[in-house]
Design brief:
By secondary structure, the chain is an alpha+beta fold. It is built from seven helices and 27 strands.
Length: 472
């Protein structure tokens, strides 16, 4: 009898192996169930009239496709198996149907000595190959390492989803008490001083932070800026609105009130300008007149943006401390050290105000804006008047409504910072695009009731700014 053990011998040791759970066998077959008391397999039914085909359909265990479900797969066989059978397989190709996110993986059984050595569709029997291609007649075929990468991505997506499901509901940065609690000489909740001080902020700024931060972010420092007068002569005096500078392990952010709170105690909203810490190339603390300035240089592929955060001059020690912390994120010249993992995907969880769309299939209109890459987040206002739409992809963002000439397609590597205005009176999304020494700031405007999906797009954008831009 011709048999081979999974992973036996050298030929397949360098190949990605997955596990296929059979759902539709290739022909007549037996159906079984497990008797847990007896510890045996029981014949439950005989499917003598099942259709005959040269392959079996199923799903790849422990994978997650772009649609949030396990990757679908077909497996050529010489002898039918049975429903629920777990088969170790080697992925050799994938069929990507036009207009659909989920591919169809083609895999060969590891245990079959005839099929296991095959590495491409062209190596299959012609009739078998045509039968498989008929499953997705308009699909694009990818093979070899590309197909393996697709399956590996599905495995990683499932691992991320499971890790997110096990993540505690309370954000990592949120401390339960201002004072640290100890047991056995150890701190029960390891938090930074800044994280413990968040409850001391005005309630509206606590709310703003909760909307803007990801659950797994950690707050390293914040500086609460009061309403500050600038200038020295009567009519030339202006006011800086109350705000907060926040430094996390992922971003630098300045949030300010859109309108000063009045006697009605209405929270009118905030303006948040953010960038990833990986975009910082220089930082400086300096005093100018009555103000202390935290000056941060943010680099993109084709230029840089200089952003200045102003505080009262008395805040200079805190500004210098913030500058020292930010400088720690600037890599040494010509270093090859890994700074962190850079996922080109959205976190499973986004701020509560946002509509979580990471696990949904993008609507047709969003795919039309980015036909050659996968949309990760999208938002648009309804109606033809003052239309606004944003689609965030893996490499580009599209803004429709920011330019009269038509939609703008902007590479993520060209963006230095992103600004979100979330206010009852007016809301908007703005990106800063560096072009040499010039900074272009295309912006969208939208009504406050439509802000949820736009906040998702804002969060996705600043998350994807993490990978350092390619040099071009």
């Amino acid at each position: 009898m011709e048999t081979v053990e999974p992973n036996a011998g050298a030929p397949g040791h360098d190949r990605l192996q997955a596990r296929l759970i059979v759902e539709q066998p290739a022909g007549p077959h037996n159906r079984y169930r497990i008797d847990p008391r007896a510890g045996t397999v029981v014949l439950e039914a005989v499917e003598a009239n099942a259709p005959v085909r040269p392959f079996e359909r199923g799903r790849l265990a422990d994978t997650r496709g772009p649609d949030g479900r396990p990757l679908r797969a077909v497996m050529p066989v010489r002898v039918p198996t049975f429903p629920g059978c777990m088969v170790p397989v080697y992925p050799i190709a994938a069929l990507q149907p036009v207009g659909q996110l989920a591919p169809l993986v083609v895999a060969v059984p590891v245990a079959d000595p005839t099929l296991a050595p095959l590495r491409a569709l062209a190596e299959l029997d012609e009739n078998l190959r045509q039968a498989i291609l008929a499953e997705a007649p308009t699909a694009e075929v990818v093979e070899g390492a590309v197909a393996e990468t697709l399956v590996r991505g599905g495995i990683e997506a499932e691992l991320r989803a499971r890790a997110a499901a096990q993540r505690p509901a309370i954000p990592a940065w949120k401390a339960s008490d201002v004072r640290p609690r100890y047991a056995g000489g150890r701190e029960l909740e390891p938090h930074t001083y800044a994280e413990r001080a968040v409850p001391l902020l005005p309630a509206r700024f606590q709310e703003y932070i909760a909307r803007a931060l990801l659950p797994e972010e950690r707050i390293l420092m914040f500086i609460h800026r009061p309403v500050t007068e600038t200038g020295g002569f009567r009519l030339r005096r202006t006011k800086l609105r109350e705000g907060i500078f926040v430094l996390t392990d992922r971003q630098v952010m300045l949030m300010t009130d859109t309108v000063e709170p009045d006697s009605t105690m209405v929270h009118w909203g905030f303006i948040a300008r953010v960038s990833a810490v990986e975009r910082v190339t220089a930082v400086q603390a300096r005093v100018q007149g009555t103000l202390a300035h935290l000056v941060v240089t943010l680099a993109a592929r084709r230029g840089a943006e200089t952003v200045s955060f102003a505080f009262p001059a008395a805040f200079m020690p805190a500004v210098e401390e913030a500058a020292a912390l930010i400088a720690g994120f600037i890599p040494a010249a010509d270093t090859r050290a890994l700074r962190r993992c850079y996922p080109r995907d959205l976190p499973v969880e986004l701020p509560s105000l946002a509509t979580v769309q990471a696990q949904m299939q993008a609507p047709t209109w969003a795919r039309d804006y980015l036909p050659d890459e996968r949309p990760l987040a999208w938002a648009r206002t309804e109606g033809d008047r003052e239309r606004a739409a944003v689609v965030v992809g893996e490499r580009r963002v599209v803004l429709d409504g920011a330019d009269k000439a038509g939609p703008l397609r902007i590479a993520l590597d060209d963006i230095t910072s992103v600004q979100m205005t979330l206010a009852l009176v007016a809301s908007g999304l703005e990106v800063a695009v560096a072009e040499g020494e010039a900074i272009r700031r295309p912006a969208l405007r939208f009504p406050y009731p439509a802000a949820g999906p736009f906040l998702t797009a804002f969060t996705a954008l600043r998350h994807l700014l993490g990978p350092p831009p390619e040099r071009g």
